[in-house]
Amino acid sequence: MKKTMLIGLTLLPLSLLADMDRCVSCHGVDFEKKALGVSKVVKNMTESQIKAALDGYKAGKGGSKKEVMMKEVNVGVDTDAMAADVYNEIHTPGFTEPDAEFIFKKRRTVRGLFKIKQALKKADPKQDSQKIFGQIKSFAFDLYTYDPALRKAVNARTTKAQPMKFPTILDRVAAAKTGTDHSFTDEALLKCQIDFVTLAQTISLNGAEKLKKKIKPKEKHHLPQTADEAAKALVGTWTQICYPTGKPNEWASKKVTVTEDMHAKGGMQFYSDDKCTKQTKEIKAFYTFTFGKVTKGDDGKEAWEIDKVIGKKKKKVYAMLRFAEANRVIISGATKTHDGSSPEKRKNHFDASWEGCTKQ
């Protein structure tokens, strides 16, 4: 036979594409005949006239032989798509049946858009919008997931949130639906799918923007701005559990308690395993903090200069301290001397791998 087309109506209750074999058996290969000797010549009809006739049969109306067509145009048929298929069949010389993959893609796209369009028409924007938006996003995700060509063609990064009213969404879906009805090449069908998936992305971004406005931003913890504030913030017990010291096969844990007068006591335990179960030694320390000015560490980030007087011998060392968060501090390595002029000369090193001490 010269021409055949798509999916049989009798095989799928919700079939949305015309079965040209069944059509041409009565209407002729080029739709040039009067079916059963009484119908209009479909070849001479416009697409809108073909659709109107199909809608009539779908509603139980028609001429003396309407019962024949009423069986073909059942309740689930999308007459938009069927009329487009018939009209294209008539007016495309040498039209041949598309391959199976195209047939499947078009049938799935037509069916999904048909359902969404019908739901949009019946929906109450105030009550049903989230449900409809869910259907749009779900179907777009289905198309996107199972079609490599569509995934390659859609660039999500270029999609932006933009105001979109309910009627506009209906118009966009209807446009994609109409385009799909008249798609008879992979390129044309892909364009319609891209338009629909982009619509779904925009709806998702709009929803994310609304949610972002509803969620109150977390209050930022106030970090110390003066030496007095830094001293008060440091009062409490700080711990760091099982961290590498930088020496081969050595890990450590520390716990330090700082009082309001800046006296501190605590200790460090050293281990030979990364689980900190095999202790090798312990060092206890007593010292006093004095906060200096804010300057920069060797990593270029701001930190407080602190002087430490250690133990009964009152050994003085120089370090730096940074409040990474309100309850987490990072302390640099200590040096015995400095001239206070620059981080380079002070040589207080901040190791990027140090997580710092956490306040209990």
Description:
The chain has 360 residues and is an alpha+beta fold. It has 3 domains: 20-91; 100-214, no CATH class; 227-359, Lipocalin. 41% of the residues lie in helices and 20% in strands. It has 11 helices and 8 strands. It has an 8-stranded antiparallel barrel with strand order 1-2-3-4-5-6-7-8. Helix 5 packs antiparallel against helix 6. The radius of gyration is 38 Å and the shape is rod-shaped. The N and C termini lie far apart (83 Å). The relative contact order is 0.07.
> Strand pairing plus helix content: what structural class?
alpha+beta
* CA-atom Rg in angstroms: 38 Å
Number of strands: 8
Q: Strand share of the residues? A: 15-25%
- The CATH architecture term of the largest domain is Beta Barrel
**CATH top level class name of the largest domain:** Mainly Beta
Shape: rod-shaped
Determine the N-to-C terminus distance. 83 Å
Order of helices and strands: HHHHHHHHHHEEEEEEEHE
